[in-house]
Amino acid sequence: MTGADGGSGQGGSRRDFLRKTAIAAALAGTAALRPLTAAAKAKKAKGEGKGMSILILGGTRFLGPAIVVAAGKNGHTLTLINRRKSHPGLYPDLEYQIGDRDGNL
User: Fold this and answer.
1) Are 90 and 64 in contact (CB under 8 A)?
2) What's the CA gap between 20 and 33, in Å, rounded?
3) Strands 77-82 and 95-98: what pairing?
4) Tens digit of pLDDT for each residue in 53-90?
5) What is d(CA 49, CA 46) in angstroms, rounded to the nearest whole number?
6) Cα–chain-centroid distance for residue 41?
7) I need a labelling partner for 2 at 20 to 30 A (CA). Which of 25, 64, 69, 76 fits?
8) Per-residue pLDDT at 79
9) Residues paired with 56 in a beta bridge
10) Cβ contacts of residue 83 below 8 Å, gap of 6+?
11) Would you kindly state where each structural domain of the chain is located, as residue ranges?
12) Percentage of residues in the chain having pLDDT higher than 70
């Protein structure tokens, strides 16, 4: 079989290179996350940090309500920033910040 460069194939094909690179990247990525997950588990064991503080832009249309509900069920603290035009009373118990992309507040 010939390689990608038309040679003897001892260097491997482009497909082999991409496969090996993807595997190496996946392994490097999971190794990089281990300290973060260990720190999060330690915080939970101590009873600290019941959830993240999440700022949601919008949150009242399309996928927003599903994201808000899912994050709330997982114990995260939520703040919504929107124009309060669509469904302004949808989440009365959440913190809101009013934002307007035109600057005409």
Assistant:
1) no
2) 20
3) parallel
4) 889 998 888 888 999 998 888 888 899 998 888 888 88
5) 9
6) 18
7) 25
8) 92
9) 80
10) 98, 99, 100
11) 8-49, 50-105
12) 64
d(CA 82, CA 34): 35
Check residue 33 and report its DSSP letter.
H
Give backbone dihedrals phi and psi of 92, rounded to 5 degrees, phi first.
-70, -20
The answer for residues whose C-beta is within 8 angstroms of residue 86's C-beta and 6 or more apart is: 60, 61
CB-side exposure of 96: number of CA atoms within 13 Å?
Answer: 17
User: 100 to each of 18, 58, 97, how far by Cα in Å?
Assistant: 45, 11, 10
More confident residue, 12 or 4: 12
Using alpha carbons, list the distances in angstroms from residue 63 to 57, 58, 67: 11, 10, 6
pTM: 0.50
DSSP reduced 3-state for 39: helix
Place of tokens 């973060």: 36
